[in-house]
Structures are given as structure tokens and as C-alpha cells.
Please model this.
Amino acid sequence: MASGRIVLLNGPSSAGKTTLAQAVARRLTTPWLVLPVDLFHQIRTRPDVVLTDRQWYDVFHRTRAAYHRALAGAASSGMDVLGDHVLDEPWRLDDLLRLTVGIDVLLVHVTCSPKELRRREKLRDDRERGKALHQQRLVFQHGDCDLTVDTTYGPDEPTAAVLDLIRHPPADRAFDRLRAQRLARA
Model:
């Protein structure tokens, strides 16, 4: 069975990754799975359980690890996958790089102006104020990607750019370069 592709949208909270993924999905001409990381937090049971901060961190970590395995598993089964993630901790990218060996991954950095991030964050009642700006400093630390889009003014231009990337991917992929860099350091 041929492996599917993964297009991974990476950016801070409130940058518009989910809106962009939905806009791209509406214009795709073949079946894709749309797997946002937030879905895994929504389907996890017992958000009301009382846990220590350390225990919640462990649950959160395992939820993210399960998300990584779902992305890789879906692509390995032949499905094309559009995912969105916040790669603000190095282990997340490292885990994905290990799990996606042999899978075609396109990495898209989703940016947004600080002013717009603050505005969007304020409109949402499920986000900690200032978190998006903090994440924006972390999510792109690995440096490399196949495409960078700015959603400050909406999803139209970024959608067109992502669709063009899917239709005309580069011969050399960011995930492969990042994986090679990590192997060289090991």
C-alpha cells in the first residue's frame, strides 16, 4: 500500500491554523483526513478531573504523542493528512521526525502579526492571554520549513499557497533536512 502525505501546519495558538486547514480542505479535490491537534484534547475524557500540574503535564504529553502517532498511522495507511500543530517544544518535532521516516511530509509555518494574535486571543475565551506571542517565539526555532504563510489578513492567500505547495512540492523536503541535521548531531 502506498503511503499518504502529511501537510503539517505549524504555528502558535490563534495564528489561524485551523481556519486555514478548513479552507484548504474545502478546495482539495481528493479525500484527505483533517486532524487538528486540538481534536485530541477535545476527545480526551475527564477534563474535570483534579490532577497536579505534573500529572496534567504527563496527560498533555501523552495526548500530543498520541496525536503524532495518529498522523503517521493515517499516512502509513495510505491517507493524505492535513494536520495542525504547535511545535513549541523540541520533543514534539523530534518525535514526529522519528515517526515519519518514509512518509512524505510538507511543513508549513503559519504566522500572524502580534497585534492580530492578541486580538484573536482576546476573542477566544479558551486561551490564556499572551500564550500565542510566547509560542510564536518558540514554534519556528527549528528554522526550516517548506512554506511560510501569514494569516494576518485572512486565509485566502495562504490557502492558495498551501494548495500550490501540495500540487508542486519541492524536491527536497524540510522534514528530511531536519531529520538529517538531527542524525548528524547524534
